[in-house]
């Protein structure tokens, strides 16, 4: 069971990035201090709306390369599990970056000719409500999880915003007031959050990013914890629906184990949701006040 490989920002996150960068550009001022690199910096894709949501294709951390190399590593470890003459099914949710991840993985594991030689077949599972309780994307088909504003999917964003408000205002003040960048105007929590996001996304594409040097170690620790918060309350132990959705995967795995070797020796499932995949979890609470 795996998510997709490394990707560009989603359209929602990318839109935030571009909006921030356009606002700073429109201010038409020379930036100082930590943000001075923006005077000569360009976004990490020339075709953002084409690349958003898709696998990264360049740099040492390219998603296409990562998926292929994962297939190669699996082959070196688990080739003995392959059954000669038996076609392996690879399940992928209906998202292009997931489908591409599965295809690159298959090329690394089964060889570049995996489709022509019928060594494996890629089965794409739609992310639609008529699929009901499938094991790949239950978060997209559980209505109560989607519609429950207090305890469902959106609770992760609520708790994230609460924690962002504890650590981001000080960063915004440092970048504007202390570093003499007042002319760009106040930075919102989401704008600073977008800056922190761009460190990782640019690193995936270019191998490094000047955004990473903008923030202190403590500020990065807060960002990492904030990422834990959103997943904890959106799809982890802090969400009352997580166990039910994770049970689908657990039940399917249990059924395969009971069936024994006759059911097959290799099973590959790749998924995409806006969260981490819902798996059975042990209760745990982030050690901080939100």
The quaternary structure here is single chain
Taken in chain order, the helices and strands follow as EHHHEHEHHHHHE
* Biggest sheet features: 4 strands, parallel
Question: Can you count the beta strands?
Answer: 4
Q: What percent of residues are in strands? A: 5-15%
If helices are DSSP runs of H or I spanning 4 or more residues, what is the number of helices?
9
**Spatial ordering of strands, largest sheet:** 1-4-2-3
Helical coverage, percent range: 40-55%
Q: Kindly report the average pLDDT value.
A: 89
Structure classification:
alpha/beta
Gross geometry: globular
Radius of gyration: 22 Å
Distance between the termini: 32 Å
Low-pLDDT stretches: 273-290
Indicate the topology.
Elements: E1 2-3, H1 11-27, H2 48-51, H3 63-78, E2 88-93, H4 96-110, E3 120-125, H5 143-147, H6 155-178, H7 189-206, H8 217-235, H9 242-259, E4 268-271
Parallel strand pairs: 1-4, 2-3, 2-4
Helix pairs in contact: 1-7, 3-4, 6-8
Structure, explained:
This protein is an alpha/beta fold and 290 residues long. It contains nine helices and four strands. It has a four-stranded parallel sheet with strand order 1-4-2-3, covered by helices on one side. Helix 4 links the parallel strand 2 and strand 3. Helix 3 packs across helix 4 and helix 6 packs antiparallel against helix 8. The two termini are 32 Å apart. The C terminus is likely disordered. Pfam families: His_Phos_2. InterPro entries: His_Pase_clade-2 (IPR000560), His_PPase_superfam (IPR029033).
Looking at this protein, list some descriptive labels.
290 residues, alpha/beta, 4-stranded parallel β-sheet, 4 strands, disordered C terminus, His_Pase_clade-2, Acid phosphatase pho5, acid phosphatase activity
């Amino acid at each position: 069971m795996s998510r997709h490989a490394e990707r560009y920002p989603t359209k929602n996150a990318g839109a935030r990035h571009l909006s921030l960068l356009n606002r700073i550009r429109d201010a038409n001022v020379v930036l100082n201090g930590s943000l001075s690199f923006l005077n000569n910096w360009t976004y990490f894709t020339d075709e953002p709306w084409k690349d958003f949501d898709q696998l990264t294709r360049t740099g040492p951390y390219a998603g296409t390369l990562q998926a292929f190399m994962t297939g190669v590593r699996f082959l070196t470890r688990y080739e003995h599990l392959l059954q000669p003459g038996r076609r392996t099914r690879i399940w992928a949710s209906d998202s292009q970056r997931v489908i591409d991840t599965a295809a690159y993985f298959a090329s690394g594991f089964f060889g570049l000719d995996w489709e022509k030689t019928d060594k494996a077949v890629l089965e794409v599972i739609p992310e639609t409500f008529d699929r009901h309780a499938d094991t790949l994307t239950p978060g997209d088909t559980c209505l109560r999880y989607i519609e429950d504003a207090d305890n469902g999917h959106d609770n992760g964003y609520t708790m994230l915003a609460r924690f962002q408000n504890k650590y981001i205002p000080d960063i915004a003040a440092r970048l504007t007031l202390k570093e003499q960048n007042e002319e760009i105007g106040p930075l919102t929590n989401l704008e600073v959050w977008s800056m922190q996001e761009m460190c990782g996304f640019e690193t995936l594409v270019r191998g490094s990013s000047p955004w990473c040097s903008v923030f202190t170690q403590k500020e990065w620790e807060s960002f990492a914890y904030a990422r834990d918060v959103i997943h904890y309350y959106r799809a982890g132990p802090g969400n009352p629906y997580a166990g039910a959705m994770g049970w689908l995967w657990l039940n399917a795995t249990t059924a395969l184990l009971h069936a024994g070797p006759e059911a097959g020796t290799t099973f590959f499932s790749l998924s995409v949701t806006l969260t981490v995949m819902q798996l059975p979890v042990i209760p745990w609470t982030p050690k901080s006040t939100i």
